[in-house]
Amino acid sequence: MRTIAIVSTTGGAGRSTVTAALASLLTGRGHAVLALECDPRNVLGFHFGMRLPARDGLSGHLGTSPSGAWAEAGQRSDDGVLFVPWGEPRQDDPTRALLHAGPEWLRGLLAQVDLPARGVALIDTAPWPSAHASQAITAADLVLALMPAQPEVCLTLRRLGDALATLGRPCIYVATRLQPARQLHADIVTMLHATLGQALLPYHVHEDSGVAEAFAQGQSFCRSTPHSQAAHDLNGLASWLSAWIDANPQGAQP
Q1: Radius of gyration of the chain (CA)
Q2: What digits encode the pLDDT tens for the residues 18-62?
Q3: CATH classification of 2-247 is 3.40.50.300, yes or no?
Q4: Domain ranges of the chain
Q5: Who contacts 83 (Cβ-Cβ below 8 Å, separation ≥6)?
Q6: Contact 25, 79 (CB under 8 A)
């Protein structure tokens, strides 16, 4: 089983949307997928059709030794994705509890998961830097960094890259929420290309109003709008990740 952390340095990058879409698309490509939410917003389940916020999830097991009880919070989507939400925090200070649990708390939980060799765990997380993002990165074989076309990305990119290099975590980057007609967006993508080289994948995820509409209706975006540009982009990204999973049985650097 491989583990991929989906991170960003800014809000609104599309982490939960991309996590849910990739989970469904990788399931369709024959991978056993576990989607984990390490984000106190607790919204990932809505992308899988939930109508009410999840009460139980990973947060209920903070401060406890790793045990299989957390898996009881798992649910399965209509297209076969097993996902575990964050749930309602049971501590007065959940961030402090997460720090107290140690940097490898989430890694320890994932070590209990028995998925097939082609299986993959996708971790949706809060913006980096945060305790939630650090847990996901520590547990990951590969970091997928989402780079929305925002000026803040230019200011935080080097810090993220330096932090991942220090941790020895391989990382790939994807531009998101792209509107090519906007000169600022084109300039930001040019900067990302110049800075990241081949680490920036060619599957830029375009802005699409259908994403919000699918979310509001509790539907899978790629299934509800399969011929949109954004769905095409996400399918390309899913194909790349599927090939990476098959080619890296030990989580080797891509």
Answers
A1: 17
A2: 999 999 999 999 999 999 999 988 889 888 888 777 788 888 777
A3: yes
A4: 2-247
A5: 23, 34, 35, 36, 37, 44, 45, 48, 74, 75, 76, 77
A6: no
